[in-house]
Every structure is written in C-alpha cells, then in structure tokens.
Amino acid sequence: MSGADLASVLAGARIMPVLTVAHPAAAGPLADALTAGGARCAEVTFRTADAELVLKEMAAHGGLAVGAGTVLTPQQAERAVRAGARFVVSPGFDAEVVRRCRELNVAVVPGVATATELMRALKAGLDTVKLFPAEPLGGTSTLKALAAPFPQVRFVPTGGIGPAQLPGYLTHPAVLAVGGSWMATTDHLERGRYDEVRRLTAEAVERSTT
Ligand code: 3PG
Fold this sequence. Notes:
- It is a single chain.
- This protein has helices at about 5-15, 25-35, 50-60, 75-80, 95-105, 115-125, 135, 140-145, 165-170, 185-190, 195-210; strands spanning about 15-20, 40-45, 65-70, 85-90, 105-110, 110, 130, 155, 180.
- It is of the alpha/beta class and about 210 residues long.
- The chain has a single domain, classed as Aldolase class I (TIM Barrel).
- It has a 4-stranded parallel beta sheet with strand order 3-2-1-9, with helices on both faces. Strands 6-7-8 form a 3-stranded parallel beta sheet. A two-stranded parallel sheet has the order 4-5.
- Helix 6 links the parallel strand 6 and strand 7 (about 130).
- It binds 3-phosphoglyceric acid.
- 3-phosphoglyceric acid binds near residues 45, 70, 159 and 182.
- 3-phosphoglyceric acid binds near residues 18 and 70.
C-alpha cells in the first residue's frame, strides 16, 4: 500500500501489535485473537527464522493489514514484500531500505530517535515515522518536544509502552497509532494464551477509543 493508505490504516487502527513469533503454527490462532480483540493491523518482526512464513499466514488470514518489522536491509524488505507485507517498519532510518521500499511500492515507516534522523526521513519524502524506543527516550515529553518543530510529521511511538502509557500518547494530535508487544508477548505465544492476547488487545482498542 502507499504511504497515504498506510497513514489512513494507522489512523483508523490506533494500535499496532508488534509480534515476534517463533512458530508458524501460532499465526492463525494469533490472527484470530487479535482480530477478535479489535486489532486492524499488526507488525510481524523479522527476528525469528520463520518470520516470513508467519507473515504470509497472518496476511492470508485477511482480517489484518500485516506489515514486516525489524527490517534492517533492502534484501529483507524484498523478502517481506514477497511474503505479503503491506508495509515495512525499521527500528532506525536507512536510506537504502527506504529506497528499496519505494521501488517495491510498499509503505515504509523508519524509526527515529532524534531530530536529525527525522530530518533525514523528511528529506527522503516520508512524513510518518516510528518514534523508537519511545519510553526509554523520555516518553510523551520527548514526543511533544520532537513533534513541535515538525508539524507535518505523524508518529507511531513504540518501545516500552504498555496500557498505562497509551492514553498519554494517543491524545497527542501527531500520533497516528501506538505500537507495542505487550498484547502478544513471547510468553503468551509459548503458552498458547490466545485468550489473554484477545483480552489485552480489546483493552488497548477500548482505551484508544475513549
Ligand atoms: C519494536 O520492535 O517495535 C519493539 O521491540 C516493540 O517494543 P516493545 O517490545 O517495548 O513493545
């Protein structure tokens, strides 16, 4: 999808579950639990050997706009798109990854932690960035300070965020959506706690709409 399409998906979704999934067998039940909880998009990180397969199965589920996360190289961006990723997320800004995503016609959301990185993203023609790692960087006060000189930029804060911090981020007008792994942790997945994934997702979605 285009960057504009992704911005509108994120603005509608408000919550981006970040998933690190070791076993492809988890993809179906996980997609079911996330959609039952009201999630509309998800980021599958390229941190496990079977990430592409997981992405493919989650994308085929149909209920979620699924993207790839932790994409560090142009080659990973290519593999992500081949597996069905509709967008690509990086923890930092890499001009080659951004260029390859452009060529592949897939939306890309680079991570930024400083004004300099944000200016690089702007120079590359992007106006949606991931603020990463949001909480260790200083949370909403850092977000406010960084957003002020860049009124055209929209943020997806991610990193160290849990339900308690959600409202603080979501009430900032520059925040499109908030990302995080707390809704579906490795522990939930290892223990098959899809009921808990659904509950935590529903709680986050509820908090994002009130
Ligand atoms: C990411 O890749 O975006 C982060 O690892 C997610 O951050 P969290 O695990 O602190 O929510």
